[in-house]
Specification:
The protein is mainly α. The chain has one domain. Helix content is about 90%, strand content about 0%. It has three helices and no strands. Helix 1 crosses helix 2. The chain is flat and about 30 Å long. The protein starts with a helix and ends with a helix. About 10% of the residues are buried. Keywords: Signal.
């Protein structure tokens, strides 16, 4: 369930703010931002 939730959050974040989210993600680190940031920032936003 956790993995599915993270995937859904990542998808929602990418669709909602692809430009800013992807820019911050690639700048901070693809792996780190893709997992930790998506789980935290996306959950707080959505």
């Amino acid at each position: 369930m956790t993995t599915s939730a993270l995937l859904l959050l990542q998808s929602a974040a990418a669709i909602a703010a692809a430009g800013l989210w992807l820019a911050a993600g690639f700048t901070a680190g693809t792996a780190t931002a893709g997992t930790a940031t998506a789980g935290t920032a996306t959950a707080g936003s959505a």
